[in-house]
Amino acid sequence: MSDVFVGPDGDPRCRWCGSAPEFLEYHDREWGFPVDDDTRLFEKLCLESFQSGLSWRTILNKREDFRKAFHRFDFNIVAQYGKNDVDRLLADARIVRHPGKISAVINNAARAVEMVKAEGSLAAFFWRFEPDPDELGPPQSQSTCKSSVKLARELKERGWKFLGPTTVYAFMQAMGLINDHSEACKLRAEVERAKNNFTRPN
To answer: Pfam families attached here (predicted)?
Structure first.
């Protein structure tokens, strides 16, 4: 049981969710459950990019501020951002004011618009890269996999920025392409049921 955190209800969870109070709800309600909503998928990729070099706690605490700053990550709107929007974002102390990351979000929004036109939806594209079980080790034992490497390479070829294999793997964990809850975690079985009942987009 050393790899778990015992929650206030007495049930075991992934150890990482006990390291900050705000992690518990995120872990129980979001992390690992399959997502096919394009806006949520795009938002998560953006936030993972902003996390690079920082902690997820920092980003999670600023998530609502990021949503307000980036029109709730509606990529059709963000793709139209110009210099005034960049200046506004760089002056917004509520978010992470990293010029390269802000520029990447705007660029990636434009690439997302292109992807929807080409593939039908972001979800249809991303779920093609759901890893086979045989490429995954024990839960939370790796930070990349063959599929995250392939997806990161494909995104780069399509012009997406600030998204490497590790960032993409974290995206896969969070959006349900991988069930990486600890074996003893109370959520693992629930997430697995959700994945089994989830209709993959095509």
So the answer is: Adenine_glyco
Q: How confident is the model at residue 1 (pLDDT cuts 50, 70, 90)?
A: very low
Query: Among this protein's residues, is 81 annotated catalytic?
Result: no
Report the pLDDT averaged over residues 123-150. Answer: 96
Active-site residue (options: 16, 22, 25, 26): 26
CATH number at residue 168: 1.10.340.30
On whether residue 188 sits in a domain, the answer given is yes
Instruction: Mark whether 160 is an active-site residue.
Output: no
Does residue 48 have an active-site annotation?
yes
Backbone angles phi, psi at 12, to 5 degrees: -80, 145
Active-site residue among 31, 43, 56, 127? 56
* pTM for the structure as a whole: 0.95
